[in-house]
Design goal:
alpha/beta; Rossmann fold; 2 domains; six-stranded parallel beta sheet; globular
Length: 270
């Protein structure tokens, strides 16, 4: 029954927390590639190699379905993985899907031509690698027309969060929002395109203003996963145990993760 959750570091724990609350009877195995975080400054080939290695480890743990709870991996590696690497009896899904579903008010399987949507001006906050991939804009263009997306690469935010320096993370978020607003003064919606960013959602909202709808990923992913497993119950793998795996120092990562989720988390070596 186990489902795998993959992330470059700790940010995917925001997704894990949401899916565990939504699907309490499903065992989840979390893999954090902390030794190689952050992914947001790596090139696409590097991200692909690291992501496939982590996904294979989750398959070994009995997870036939793996969620890439990492926007950089979803942007830089997922399509290539799905087209030429993932076996027919496995599935790897990304976290852009629920965001675009929410923004365009249409289901992922809806292959009708792109159409007008209510929101016209969208701010995207993401890692440098996600921004440079233009994956979000490409997927959005398949489903909506007339939407102006202004992307802001948020360098340094993930590093600060991973190090537990939330004062620096807040300062960086405000700086990046200011930079975005110089390019798009009145965004109608903002996408937090990194699973670390929900930890700073209140700061993003305050800096952007109450009139801007801020889309975060964790709860959207949880609802989409619940729907997917209802439609594809055969994709729950043979694994029966929940667990936490890391390529980093398990003791240090466990301490950071416990601070993240405010409950005891114990990682094992991957």
């Amino acid at each position: 029954m186990a489902v795998g959750i993959f992330d470059s570091g700790l940010g995917g724990l925001t997704v894990l927390d949401a899916v565990q609350k939504r699907l309490p009877d499903v065992p989840f195995v979390y893999f954090g590639d902390n030794a190689h975080a952050p992914y947001g400054v790596r090139d696409a080939d590097d991200v692909y190699a690291l992501t496939t290695r982590g996904v294979e480890r989750l398959w070994d743990a009995g997870c036939d379905l793996v969620i890439l709870a990492c926007n950089t991996a979803s942007a830089a590696a997922l399509r290539r993985m799905q087209e030429s690497w993932v076996p027919r009896d496995k599935r790897v899904l990304g976290v852009f899907v629920p965001l675009i579903e929410a923004l365009t008010e249409r289901q992922w399987g809806d292959n009708s031509p792109p159409r007008e949507v209510a929101v016209k001006h969208v701010a995207l906050f993401a890692t440098p690698a996600t921004v440079s991939s233009r994956a979000f804009q490409r997927e959005l263009a398949f489903r909506a027309i007339g939407v102006d997306v202004e992307a802001q690469a948020c360098g340094g935010v993930v590093d600060a969060i991973e190090e537990g320096d939330m004062i620096l993370a807040e300062a960086l978020v405000r700086s990046h929002v200011d930079a975005l607003k110089r390019k798009m003064p009145r965004p109608e919606a903002a996408i937090l395109g990194c699973t670390h960013y929900p930890l700073m959602q209140e700061v993003f909202q305050e800096a952007l203003g109450d009139e801007v709808a801020v889309y975060s990923q964790a709860n959207l992913v949880a609802e989409s996963l619940a729907d997917y497993l209802t439609r594809h119950p055969d994709m729950q793998g043979p694994g029966t145990e929940s667990g936490y795996l890391t390529t980093g120092d398990p003791k240090r990562v466990s301490s950071r993760a416990t601070q993240f989720l405010r409950r005891e988390i114990t990682f094992s070596p991957a």
